[in-house]
Design brief:
- By secondary structure, the protein is mainly alpha-helical.
- It is built from four helices and two strands, in the order H-H-H-H-E-E.
- Strands 1-2 form a two-stranded antiparallel sheet.
Length: 151
């Protein structure tokens, strides 16, 4: 490599006009040259790459399953209301019982029993109106179950 350096330098000094670019010749900008190179590479790769299979549409949930927030059924609202009433009655009954057990014994017992009854009815109303649907779901990379409704 070093043996070529001296002759190249001597040639450049001896013939400086031979190494200049022709000003009349069209010059390609680097961007155009890169585009042409990229196009040539694409054409070469088309021959090398195997043909791609047609794209498959992504598989989603069945049309009858929607992921919109479900409207709250009336039975669930009634059940929650009864559970809140049961909680208030039970806390009131326990508060009266702790304040003066001898004086409010009957009232406290009545409130606790009413709270237990309201809680039992509220739970039964909520458990009876439990609509939940399970449907199979698949995407391009996963498969599973779509659960819609409330549990």
């Amino acid at each position: 490599m070093r043996s070529l350096v001296a002759p190249c330098l001597a040639l450049m000094i001896a013939a400086p006009g031979a190494l200049r670019a022709d000003p009349v010749a069209p010059q390609l900008s680097p961007i155009q040259g890169r585009r042409e190179d990229a196009e040539r590479l694409r054409e070469q790769l088309r021959d090398v790459d195997p043909p791609r299979p047609p794209s498959v549409a992504p598989v989603g949930p069945p049309p009858d399953v929607s992921f919109d927030p479900p409207s709250t059924p009336a039975s669930r609202v009634v059940g929650k209301g009864l559970l809140w009433i049961a909680a208030v009655l039970a806390v009131s009954g326990l508060g009266l019982h702790e304040a003066d057990p001898a004086r409010f014994d009957d009232a406290a017992t009545g409130l606790i029993i009413a709270g237990a009854v309201a809680g039992g009815v509220g739970l039964s109303v909520m458990l009876v109106g439990r609509p939940a649907r399970v449907a199979p779901m698949a995407t391009a990379r996963t498969a599973g179950l779509a659960i819609s409704g409330s549990l």
